[in-house]
Amino acid sequence: MSHFETDAIRLNASKSNQREHSAPLYLTSSFTFDSAEEARAMFAEEIPGNIYSRYANPNSTELIEKVCAAEGTEDGIATASGMAAMFGSMAALLQQGDHILASRSLFGSTHQLLTRVFPKWGISSTYGDISDYKNWEKLIQANTKMLFIETPSNPGLEIIDLEWAGQFAAAHNLILVVDNCFATPYLQQPAKWGAHIVTHSATKFIDGQGRVLGGLILGKKELIQEVQFFSRHTGPSISPFNAWILAKSMETLAVRMDRHCANALAVAEYFQDSADLDFVKYPFLKSHPQYDLAKKQMKLGGGIITLTLKGGIARAQRFIDQLQMISVTANLGDSRSIITHPASTTHSKLSEEERAKVGISDGLIRLSVGLEHQEDIIKDVERALEKSR
Q1: Residue ranges with strand state E in the chain
Q2: What is the rounded CA–CA span in Å between residue 242 and residue 207?
Q3: 284 secondary structure, DSSP code
Q4: Distance of CA 165 to CAs 171, 264, 321, Å?
Q5: What DSSP designation does 119 have?
Q6: Which of 95, 313, 372, 376 is in Cβ range 3.0-4.6 Å of 362 for a Cys bridge?
Q7: For each of the chain's 389 residues, which pLDDT tens digit applies?
């Protein structure tokens, strides 16, 4: 099949002998074998088949096949959470003494992996500034093995040139890992630009309704084999139920993202000249510093905007407390609109200097624009801005 929407709905509809129309839920920890020889052959990977749900399960297999088709990747593995995917995509492919070159603007927990967890194992990292690609050549070390980027970044919405990243990684023989969580495979496919590994927090837009946790690691088959070995023996397995939910969610991803993007653009355009705000940032808003690049590599602008309120953290907190409809929570990508204050929550473990380097000011608010009517979202934001003055 050739269309995203059709593949997401029809691909790998796993069926039992009961002739069900919708893929069943396989709530089993293990699977039986017809003979001792079949068990031996499966464990030796001489024949395919399900052994144990920590390794694979029909529900996780269906999810992986759907998302691989969407991303244009060869293979993948589903994990228990987005951060399990971030960790597994790096830990499985790196050794003691290796070096990671990463974009500076990253999700807070990913920053903690690079600066506090991996150094314990002798894996170092260096950040590059996307405003100066030429300088990245100077950041390459003899032991640099991986290039890790987010685009759009969380929460700064920085856009990194995927074509440049693919060429840079190829020139220096690096494994290119791209966190594609904000864009989803519907809006952007990093593998087309040379990414070897693509990761997702499926908890976000792929689920889309704030129900379950899940992560995805997708990419080149030979690399995914390493990730599968690592994950099977360290255990960050996704539950069959969560995989079943996420495989179902893929069926509506396209139509949901169309609505998320339309709503987000409308909200961004409405508030871009607000006297209460220093800046409104959205990839498909012409004022975005990388607007042309976003248009080049993304189908639409995504469901996240940032609002930088005048008055710093005090004004930001007053604004949040005045919201009546929009939820205050640390998640994103939900059907419901969500507000987060990164400086005091998701990125609070970063120092003030580190937050400044990635553009997270005290007044910055991350708005995950949901599927409600545009006018209701705008009215809630407008009312809270007025009452917070």
Answers
A1: 75-79, 99-103, 124-128, 144-150, 175-179, 197-201, 215-219, 277-281, 304-309, 327-328, 338-340, 364-368
A2: 9
A3: T
A4: 10, 27, 40
A5: G
A6: 313
A7: 579 999 998 887 666 777 888 889 999 999 999 999 999 999 999 999 999 999 999 999 999 999 999 999 999 999 999 999 999 999 999 999 999 999 998 998 999 999 999 999 999 999 999 888 889 999 999 999 999 999 999 999 999 999 999 999 999 999 999 999 999 999 999 999 999 999 999 999 999 999 999 999 999 999 999 999 999 999 999 999 999 999 999 999 999 999 999 999 999 999 999 999 999 999 999 999 999 999 999 999 999 999 999 999 999 999 999 999 999 998 999 999 999 999 888 888 778 887 877 778 899 999 999 999 999 999 999 999 999 99
Cα separation, 327 vs 308, whole angstroms: 18
Interatomic CA distance for residues 354 and 349, integer angstroms: 10
Which among 155, 164, 180, 72 is positioned nearest to 340, based on CA atoms?
155
Total residue count of the chain as it appears in this document = 389
For 375, residues 6+ apart whose C-beta sits below 8 A from its C-beta are none
Q: Which residues contact 242 (CB under 8 A, 6 or more apart)?
A: 80, 212, 213, 214
Q: Is 12 left (phi over 0), alpha (psi -120 to 50) or beta?
A: left
Look-up of token digits 């006297």: 275
Instruction: Give the separation between CA 202 and CA 250, rounded to whole angstroms.
Output: 10
Cα–Cα distance, 277 to 300 (Å, whole number): 24
Please give the helix or strand (H or E) that residue 124 lies within, else none.
strand 124-128
Write the DSSP assignment of 302-321 as a string of letters: -SEEEEEETTHHHHHHHHHH
End-to-end CA distance of the chain: 53
